[in-house]
């Protein structure tokens, strides 16, 4: 077997992304490996090419293992002494548990800490061998499926090994509930089973993957090279397991373990699909959901399993033992694959009560989905932060949102994850000083309620994100408090608890060395996240705060547990940590993605972006395919990077998305540039597309954006949104917005209202200068998920030589890649309004001028799907030549405004609707009002489809425009006597051919 070095390069590229998005990414380990990437991959290639496979059993290759918190088991949990007793203080609750006499048990989960070489082998195995097993899985297997292209072949260029988890999870969950509801609506009696395998990864020994009998069952044949790679990999899994206390199982945390686990249950899938033949069967790795018609009047779990055992082959595959159902195919001898009855649930449903239960679960799903879809919304007062956090981590009023989810732990995690997500969004979108009080209240509440033994074991996976936020915002005083709380927590657990590892035989004892692995993994998480989030340049207050933190840590004021002492040894000067952060940033492993350095400075926070001269340079020759390198070379050129660009560009964890590339690429819509654009997209993300499916500009300068089937009516959401002079002035003189936090909360609440609407708006328009560019992408992405395109003015973009650009940005949904994507269109205002020009010069000596590539004489026209429209910014509507150029060419004209002269514009809008003979969609600053949709209807009372003015709060109103009816009217040689005003003289000669349809 000879492995190409480029294949190992692609495997490393996938392994890096898999590991980065895992629960316990080893950022510094990845960085160190990448420091000598060519050498490391060449060495791995030599071992793979060799006939000696012993190296793959060595500890140097296998890596080691660690422990992570799972749960605290309290002996008095169900005691009559404490039933009905609720503690407001976590401290008092813990003291009561400890004082009860019997020590609580701290249970840990054993996780893999494999070498990076092992991760690369894992990714290579998934590409070459695992993909063959994965392809043989049933379509009813949803979880951990490998990423493929549209031809169902493994996409070796795509980032990461697996399909994004969210969509398959929703299909698995929703499919079962839909099957239940449909059957019940058809008056059928229904059985619904949910089950999962206890400690599946820890109980599964992977030697069956070498068994040719199993290969026959799975229907696969491996060639010689694949057989060798499979043998090397599976034997490495077995060797790793022998070096752990469990001495068995799969490495939890090694991505390929999921592929092996899926393959192990192939025979179970075959049996259920062929013999049980349910209405619905879905498996998400080891979670099973099964819906079937209850024709046999089953009323108990015992009756159900008896019926299953009696299917052909059932008694050979399945056994009942010790209140568990064991899956025992011939190829899994020695493995205990058990569906524990305490987790199995059988729902016996019929009639209206059964349907009501299914509907209740569906409602909870929609509610939870709505929460995740929405933009962040922090409480108005910092005093409410602790209350919100307590509600997020308690079970009061919570309901399960799947048939499986009924345990408190899952609900705790979901609630806290939502809460933390909101604070992380504020950290990315606002300067730290604008929301300091809320953030500090959050840290205080987290220390009080999360960094306690019981809650920490439930929510420990979120601690690195809290630390990252504190460091990124220079909250080093609160970082110290967090470290001190962690120290005290570690002391409490070490002195007050017994220890156990999930899945470990009770006879085996755990050594102190084993327990120290828990604190070692926590230390790694702390150091990784402090280094990755450290600001590239500290503010003056940040320098003082860091100095104080460093002094307190060195003096032992944060405690003396081994974890704290080890952290003390690692912490060095801020300059040294900034050097580490610059290295992580260069490799796209820092808190701030590397791609941010290529975006306009107004779009992203600059706090974590080091100077370009401090970035690493990298020689990629021979590690990746030449075609991929060509794409990265083009991208580096767009970003004005010199030769040998940072490694994180080619080995990215968070590459540019499509919307961002339209900001970076020069004139991306020109037909001559489409080939280069396609090459960059393919190099970055592995997407392969044809030119005719991507946005392009034709010879008449019309921008065509594919967007599915034509829509004959469009629903437009027009906002009434206030922008204050304070915000306007701050944007001009480049100072923080005094209204920043309140404005951010206002826009988030307004967008959340739009997202929650059931009327299916296609477009949302905001006024001129409505948003800071930094907020645009997040809002556009949230709206995309509801099928809404965004058109808004953004604050001034500053260019050199006292020049500013004044732009409208439109994030337009398109399907050129085969799935909904966003395309960012920018259009410059060509000349400032009279008062605007005065204010720009008075406040900052600025001049407004469009970029050279954004200059135009005729207003650009956009064909979005089959809907043709143009955009003018406020005073441009007064240009009679612009209006004349659009006559007959567009269905609608969008006009974002900041305009106090509503009387003058009233006449302009009414005239434009008639002489352009199109829908005019005007959106003005709420302070002045007169936002409306105006139509050229014959009846005067119909002409304002909607019109709003005034009010104390931001709001949004939708109106529907009938594009087809307008085109049918205009396509007649002589205007009919129907719903619209006759077209103006000369209109027929100027109407574009593409807009003509069959007249009525």
From TrEMBL:
Gene3D superfamilies in the record: Carbon-nitrogen hydrolase (3.60.110.10)
Disordered, as annotated region: 977-1000
Keyword Transferase assigned: yes
Organism ancestry: Bacteria, Pseudomonadati, Pseudomonadota, Gammaproteobacteria, Pseudomonadales
One Pfam family matching this protein: RVT_1
PANTHER family referenced in this protein's UniProt entry, alphabetically: NUCLEAR INTRON MATURASE 1, MITOCHONDRIAL-RELATED, PROTEIN YKFC
Protein family membership: Belongs to the bacterial reverse transcriptase family.
Alphabetized InterPro entries for the sequence: C-N_Hydrolase_sf (IPR036526), GrpII_Intron_Splice-Mob/Def (IPR051083), RT_dom (IPR000477)
Matches recorded under SUPFAM superfamilies: Carbon-nitrogen hydrolase
The keyword Nucleotidyltransferase appears for this protein: yes
Key words of the record: Nucleotidyltransferase, RNA-directed DNA polymerase, Transferase
A molecular-function term among this protein's GO annotations: RNA-directed DNA polymerase activity
Protein known as: Reverse transcriptase (RNA-dependent DNA polymerase)
Ranges of residues in domain Reverse transcriptase: 103-300
């Amino acid at each position: 077997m000879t492995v190409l070095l480029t294949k190992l390069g692609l495997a490393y590229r996938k392994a890096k992304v898999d590991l980065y998005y895992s629960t316990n990414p080893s950022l510094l380990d990845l960085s160190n490996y990448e420091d000598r990437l060519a050498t490391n991959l060449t060495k791995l290639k030599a071992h793979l090419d060799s006939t000696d496979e012993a190296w793959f059993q060595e500890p140097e290759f296998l890596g080691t293992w660690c422990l992570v918190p799972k749960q605290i088991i309290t002996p008095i949990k169900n005691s009559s002494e404490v039933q009905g007793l609720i503690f407001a203080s976590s401290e008092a609750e813990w003291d009561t548990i400890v004082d009860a006499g019997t020590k609580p048990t701290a249970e840990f989960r054993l996780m893999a800490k494999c070498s990076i070489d092992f991760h690369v082998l894992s990714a290579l195995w998934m590409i070459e061998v695992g993909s063959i097993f994965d392809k043989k899985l049933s379509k009813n297997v949803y979880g951990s499926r490998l990423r493929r292209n549209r031809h169902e072949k493994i996409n070796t260029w795509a980032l990461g090994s697996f399909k994004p988890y969210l969509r398959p999870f929703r299909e698995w969950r929703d499919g079962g509930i839909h099957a239940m509801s449909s059957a019940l609506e058809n008056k059928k009696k229904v059985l619904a089973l949910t089950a999962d395998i206890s400690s599946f990864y820890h109980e599964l020994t992977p030697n069956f993957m070498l068994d040719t009998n199993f290969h026959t069952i799975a229907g696969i044949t491996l060639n010689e090279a694949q057989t060798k790679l499979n043998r090397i990999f599976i034997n490495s899994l077995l060797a790793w397991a022998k070096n752990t206390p469990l001495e068995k199982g799969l490495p939890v945390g090694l991505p390929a373990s999921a592929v092996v686990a899926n393959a192990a249950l192939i025979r179970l899938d075959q049996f259920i699909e062929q013999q049980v033949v349910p209405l619905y069967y879905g498996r998400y790795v080891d979670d099973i959901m099964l819906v079937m018609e209850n024709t046999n009047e089953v009323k108990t779990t015992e009756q159900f399993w008896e019926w299953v055992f009696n299917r052909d082959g059932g008694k050979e595959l399945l056994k009942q033992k010790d209140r568990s159902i064991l899956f025992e195919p011939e190829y899994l001898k020695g493995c205990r694959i058990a569906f524990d009855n305490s987790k199995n649930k059988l729902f016996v449903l019929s009639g209206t009560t059964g349907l009501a239960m299914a509907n209740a679960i569906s409602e909870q799903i929609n509610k939870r989905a709505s929460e995740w879809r929405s933009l962040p919304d922090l409480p108005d007062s910092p005093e409410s932060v602790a209350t919100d956090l307590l509600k997020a981590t308690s079970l009061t009023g919570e309901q399960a949102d799947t048939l499986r989810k009924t345990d408190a732990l899952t609900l705790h995690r979901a609630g806290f994850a939502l809460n933390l997500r909101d604070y992380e969004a504020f950290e990315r979108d606002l300067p730290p000083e604008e929301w300091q009080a809320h953030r500090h209240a959050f840290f205080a509440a987290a220390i009080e309620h999360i960094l306690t033994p019981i809650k920490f074991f439930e929510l420990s996976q979120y601690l690195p994100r809290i630390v990252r936020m504190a460091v990124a915002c220079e909250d080093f005083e609160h970082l110290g408090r967090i470290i001190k709380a962690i120290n005290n927590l570690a002391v409490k657990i070490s002195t007050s608890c017994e220890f156990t590892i999930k899945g470990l035989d009770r006879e085996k004892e755990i050594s102190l060395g084993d327990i120290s692995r828990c604190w070692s993994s926590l230390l790694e998480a702390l150091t990784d996240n402090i280094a990755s989030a450290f600001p590239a340049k500290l503010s003056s207050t940040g320098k003082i705060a860091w100095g104080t933190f460093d002094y307190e840590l060195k003096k032992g004021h944060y405690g003396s547990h081994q974890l704290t002492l080890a952290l003390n040894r690692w912490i060095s000067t801020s300059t040294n940590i900034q050097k580490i952060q610059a290295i992580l940033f260069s490799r796209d492993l820092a808190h701030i993605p590397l791609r941010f350095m290529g975006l306009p400075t107004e779009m992203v926070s600059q706090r974590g972006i080091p100077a370009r001269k401090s970035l690493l340079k990298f020689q990629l020759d021979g590690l990746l395919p030449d075609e991929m390198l060509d794409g990265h070379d083009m991208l580096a050129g767009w970003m004005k990077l010199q030769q040998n660009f940072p490694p994180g560009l080619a080995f990215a964890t968070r590459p540019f998305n499509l919307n961002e590339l339209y900001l970076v690429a020069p004139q991306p819509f020109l037909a001559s540039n489409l080939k280069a654009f396609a090459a960059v997209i393919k190099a970055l993300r592995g997407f392969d597309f044809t030119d005719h499916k991507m946005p392009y500009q034709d010879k008449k300068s019309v921008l065509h954006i594919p967007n599915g089937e034509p829509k004959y009516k469009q629903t437009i959401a027009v906002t009434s949104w206030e922008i204050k002079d304070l915000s306007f002035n701050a944007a001009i003189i480049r100072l923080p917005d005094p209204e920043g936090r309140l404005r951010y909360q206002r826009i988030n609440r307004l967008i959340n209202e739009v997202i929650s609407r059931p009327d299916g708006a296609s477009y949302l328009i905001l006024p001129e200068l409505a948003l800071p560019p930094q907020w645009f992408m997040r809002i556009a992405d949230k709206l995309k998920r509801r099928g809404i395109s965004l058109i808004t003015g953004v604050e001034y973009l500053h260019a050199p030589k006292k020049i500013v650009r004044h732009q409208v940005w439109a994030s337009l949904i398109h399907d050129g890649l085969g799935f909904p994507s966003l395309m960012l269109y920018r259009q410059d205002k060509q000349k400032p309004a009279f008062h605007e020009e005065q204010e720009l010069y008075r406040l900052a000596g600025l001049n407004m001028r469009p970029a050279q590539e954004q200059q135009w004489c005729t207003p650009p026209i956009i064909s979005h799907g089959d809907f043709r429209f143009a955009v003018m910014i406020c005073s441009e509507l007064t240009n009679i030549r612009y209006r004349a150029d659009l006559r007959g060419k567009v269905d609608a004209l969008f006009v974002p405004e900041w305009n106090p002269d509503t009387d003058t514009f009233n006449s302009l809008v009414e005239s434009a609707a008639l002489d352009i003979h199109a829908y005019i969609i005007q959106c003005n600053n709420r302070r002045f009002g007169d936002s409306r949709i105006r139509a050229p209807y014959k009846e005067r009372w119909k002409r304002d489809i909607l019109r709003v003015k005034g009010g104390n709060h931001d709001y949004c109103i939708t109106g529907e425009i009938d594009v087809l009816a307008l085109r049918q009217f205009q396509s007649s040689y002589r205007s009919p006597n129907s719903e619209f005003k006759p077209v103006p003289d000369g209109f027929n000669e100027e109407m574009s051919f593409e807009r003509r349809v069959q007249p009525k």
